[in-house]
Inverse folding.
């Protein structure tokens, strides 16, 4: 080793020894708050405190009125998914925020327990049992067990997410008391004339063998049908038939549902449209066709490239023309229907009132019979009129049979595949049909205008939800509420055996309600018909049989507001609940069924505020799908996967922060990259809190420095804290939690870690423990930690509780939970606008200084900013005075910073690190030089005259100790 190297080594060792000698005299952070989260083990320690115990405490102790977020009941079937997490965590953030503001939060979780999927799942689980031999009571027994088992699994998962609520006393749509209230709503709607029975087309699922509501459909864009063009012979017409051979004139129709042709009752035209008789150039068969004139070009490929027009006339002239039915050969008429357009087909539409809603309404006005030769399995019945069709499924073999029949009769012009949008059963994922059956309906037409009027006063997030809900409501005229299943609440109706006339009266329903109070809905199947009948009908000379239909599950869940009215009994409320919050699919589901039933019975909206969230998609924006392999289980996020390196255990709070970080009114992305970033944010929150806790470990509330005595930078930081606190509260109030998270991240990373903490470390570590300058910083850290923890708590409650556990002993108000502190108070004097303006200049100047320091660091002139001195040259001005007020070397984190007049010149400055900037009050020249003094072995500032000796500040601190 050379002499020079040896000297450097000895010097380095001496410096190390000096640094170690004084390190114990520094006030370095000390805390029991762990750097490592260990969420799987640590979060559980705080769960009861901030969830189960807190819920009961706030109901008993919070001073303000009730806040009711009414829980939309999830379906008691299967495990929870990431969409459930999004929904429940959003609700919990709101409830926790309300608790902090002193409200008594009423949050009763609920479950939707009836319906086809539960029934089918329960039956599937029965092994070696002939399902067809089961009685309704046996089916109901296994379905109930299946629902309650699923409910218990879901309840455990919900509570594991830290969702605060009354989990021991949820509402369930299968509860006896709930079913009684449901029948009472049905009774009130019946008394007002809103309930009726009608034989008309409804959405029918052959795969489920039940009627469906619009909300139970999903539409596929790639459905493929067999479309046909069919010629129907005209028998009698008022049209000019000159030169047209008898029996050679046809009406041409087009349909995408050939299976509905056996049920044809008419052909409809629009009397205001123009029609033509046309024939092809090569008219060897001498056939003539009636089509809409504007469809002429579109039909050239069907009838032949060269089409000639024989005559043209108004559609009105066609009304009353008769034609031969395509299947049974009977005579039918052409009728008028205003919904017929020139947009597609031929302008003449085959009408089957048993299989189309518009067809039904059109024929009803003309007293044309509704005919439906299709059974509950979606198969042709014996009424179809052609034996070869009978028993065939209409969507498959039945369609093929009809097409073959049309070919044999020589009336099929053309057949082709047709891809289009088509409704499917949302549970079985199979196509539905429209089928006329006798069903029970609620009259939406009678109440929807009042409903629209009432929801105009409902605050909705996003605002676009208002129009969406209005349009879905306006588009309905009635609601099919009957279902053909055993597992549900029965429609309490009897039918006279001879006439099929329904018996549904006040006394008959009141009698059933009393039975339900004792037996629940099982009583409908347990008791015989005579016991179920009200006494006045038992001997009236008629024979009655109870019905087998149950109520739509949307009616079940739609009356859940009755639970609030009975259990909470809040007086003088504008709406039944303060808030409903669910996914956007509920505009045609629970939001709407709740609205319609509440308006029908109470003439009141069930919610004062309504929040709609989107759906969860993967990082590429694709819907979650098992086939794509992109489904993310909340349990995997919380506890980790089989390979913890690929799927680490993030814990509950990271899952919750993902929810809060999302712009939930849109579809929300999730994936490994997203979760990794969210996990990093929680780690930063933890480290930030740990820094403050470590420095406050020997500080108490009674040591706070008065605002007037704080250092200027500490006053400025309180100004920033004031505005941070204000904006966080505003964003919480607006339910924009992603903006709360943005504010937290910016505050954490920019204002705290990269700015204030860096600047004040020197005072915190090196000043005397009781010095005014150090206590000034600790006063600000105390206020920051209090506001920071409370701001975090609705979103990451377990982390907030752990922070508070290490903070409560120095707090102004020691409680056993951060949520019992209430919301933070902001000192109005902290809002210091003149100081803000000063710091706008200082922060700009600091940024310019940092850029020069970075150049010197890259040139290896300095290693750290403490090895530098800063010289500022400014003309006498307000800027000069401003700079003199502040401790610039701490702001720049350099060992020295001086201010001189620009006119004093810089001839003595030989530094190449110079920059000239323009400020509002003049020019400022910045010069960076390497520090000329020696490094203090205690505080590492270069401000001592003799190498190895302490600076004056450190010497005084050790002397005082």
């Amino acid at each position: 080793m050379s002499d020079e190297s040896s000297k450097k080594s000895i010097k380095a060792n001496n410096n190390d020894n000096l640094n170690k000698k004084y390190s114990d005299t520094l006030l370095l952070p000390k805390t029991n708050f762990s750097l490592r989260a260990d969420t799987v083990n640590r979060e559980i320690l705080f769960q009861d405190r901030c969830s189960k115990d807190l819920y009961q405490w706030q109901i008993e102790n919070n001073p303000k009125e009730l806040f009711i977020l009414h829980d939309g009941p999830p379906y008691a079937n299967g495990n929870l998914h990431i969409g459930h997490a999004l929904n429940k965590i959003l609700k919990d953030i709101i409830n926790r925020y309300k608790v902090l503001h002193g409200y008594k939060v009423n949050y009763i979780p609920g479950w939707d327990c009836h319906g086809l999927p539960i029934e089918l799942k329960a039956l599937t689980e029965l092994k070696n049992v002939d399902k067809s031999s089961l009685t309704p009571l046996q089916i109901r027994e296994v379905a109930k067990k299946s629902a309650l088992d699923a409910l218990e699994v879901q309840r455990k998962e919900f509570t594991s997410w830290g969702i605060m609520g009354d989990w021991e006393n949820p509402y369930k749509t299968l509860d006896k008391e709930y079913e009684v209230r449901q029948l009472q709503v049905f009774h009130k709607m019946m008394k007002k004339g809103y309930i009726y029975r009608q034989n008309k087309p409804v959405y029918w699922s052959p795969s489920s063998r039940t009627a469906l509501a619009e909300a139970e459909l999903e539409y596929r864009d790639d459905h493929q049908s067999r479309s046909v063009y069919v010629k129907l012979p005209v028998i009698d017409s008022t049209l000019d038939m000159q030169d047209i051979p008898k029996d050679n004139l046809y009406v041409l129709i087009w349909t995408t549902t050939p299976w509905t042709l056996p049920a044809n009752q008419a052909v409809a035209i629009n009397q205001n449209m123009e029609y033509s008789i046309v024939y092809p150039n090569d008219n060897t068969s001498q056939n003539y066709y009636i089509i809409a004139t504007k469809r002429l070009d579109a039909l050239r490929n069907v009838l032949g490239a060269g089409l000639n027009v024989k005559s043209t006339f108004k559609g009105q002239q066609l009304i009353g023309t008769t034609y031969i039915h395509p299947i049974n050969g009977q005579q039918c008429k052409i009728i008028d229907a205003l919904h017929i357009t020139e947009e597609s087909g031929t302008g003449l539409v085959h009408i089957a009132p048993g299989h189309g809603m518009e067809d039904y309404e059109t024929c009803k006005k003309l007293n044309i019979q509704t005919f439906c030769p299709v059974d509950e399995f979606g198969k042709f019945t014996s009424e179809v009129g052609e034996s070869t069709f009978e028993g065939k499924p209409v969507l498959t073999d039945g369609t093929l049979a009809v097409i073959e029949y049309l070919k044999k009769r020589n009336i099929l012009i053309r057949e082709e595949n047709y891809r289009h949008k088509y409704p499917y059963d949302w549970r079985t994922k199979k196509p539905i049909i429209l089928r006329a059956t006798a069903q029970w309906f609620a009259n939406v037409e009678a109440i929807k205008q009042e409903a629209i009027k009432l929801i105009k006063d409902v605050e909705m997030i996003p605002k676009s939800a208002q129009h969406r809900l209005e349009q879905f409501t306006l588009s309905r005229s009635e609601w099919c509420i009957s279902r053909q299943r055993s597992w549900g609440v029965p429609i309490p109706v009897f039918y006279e055996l001879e006439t099929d006339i329904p018996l549904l009266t006040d006394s008959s329903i009141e009698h059933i309600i009393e039975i339900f109070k004792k037996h629940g809905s099982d009583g409908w199947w347990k008791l015989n018909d005579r016991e179920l009948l009200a006494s006045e009908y038992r001997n009236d000379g008629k024979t009655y049989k109870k019905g087998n239909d149950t109520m739509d599950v949307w009616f079940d869940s739609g009356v859940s507001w009755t639970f609030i009215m009975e259990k909470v009994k809040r007086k003088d409320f504008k709406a039944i609940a303060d808030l409903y919050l669910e996914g956007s699919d509920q505009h045609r589901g629970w939001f709407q069924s709740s609205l319609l039933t509440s308006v029908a019975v109470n003439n009141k909206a069930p919610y004062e505020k309504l929040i709609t969230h989107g759906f969860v998609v993967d990082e590429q924006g694709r819907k979650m799908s098992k086939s794509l392999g992109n489904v993310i289980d909340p349990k995997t996020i919380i506890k980790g996967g089989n390979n913890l390196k690929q799927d680490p255990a993030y814990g509950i709070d990271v899952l919750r922060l993902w929810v809060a970080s999302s712009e939930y009114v849109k579809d929300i992305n999730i994936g490994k990259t997203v979760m990794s970033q969210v996990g990093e944010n929680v780690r930063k929150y933890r480290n930030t809190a740990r820094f403050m806790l470590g420095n406050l470990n020997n500080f108490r509330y009674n040591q706070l420095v008065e605002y007037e005595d704080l250092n200027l930078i500490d006053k400025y930081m309180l100004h920033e804290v004031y505005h941070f606190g204000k904006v966080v509260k505003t964003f919480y109030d607006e339910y924009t939690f992603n903006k709360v998270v943005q504010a937290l991240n910016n505050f954490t990373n920019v204002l705290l870690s990269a700015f204030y903490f860096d600047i004040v470390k020197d005072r915190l570590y090196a000043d005397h423990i009781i010095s005014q300058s150090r206590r000034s910083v600790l006063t600000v850290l105390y206020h920051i930690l209090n506001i920071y923890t409370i701001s975090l708590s609705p979103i990451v409650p377990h982390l907030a509780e752990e922070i508070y556990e290490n903070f409560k002993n120095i707090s102004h108000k020691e409680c056993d939970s951060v949520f019992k502190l209430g919301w933070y108070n902001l000192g109005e004097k902290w809002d210091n606008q003149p100081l803000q303006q000063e710091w706008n200049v200082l922060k700009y100047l600091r940024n310019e200084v940092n850029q020069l320091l970075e150049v010197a660091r890259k040139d290896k002139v300095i290693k750290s900013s403490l090895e530098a001195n800063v010289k500022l040259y400014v003309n006498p001005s307000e800027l000069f005075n401003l700079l003199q007020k502040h401790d610039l070397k701490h702001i720049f984190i350099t060992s020295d910073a001086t201010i001189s007049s620009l006119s004093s010149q810089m001839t003595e400055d030989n530094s190449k690190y110079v920059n000239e900037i323009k400020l509002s009050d003049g020019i400022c020249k910045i010069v960076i030089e390497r520090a000329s003094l020696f490094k203090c072995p205690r505080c590492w500032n270069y401000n001592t005259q003799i190498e190895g000796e302490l600076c004056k500040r450190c010497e005084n601190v050790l002397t005082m100790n």
In short: The domain at 62-191+449-458+552-613 is CATH 3.40.50.620 (Rossmann fold). The longest strand covers residues 217-236. The CA atoms of residues 360 and 476 lie 16 Å apart. The two ends are 42 Å apart (CA to CA).
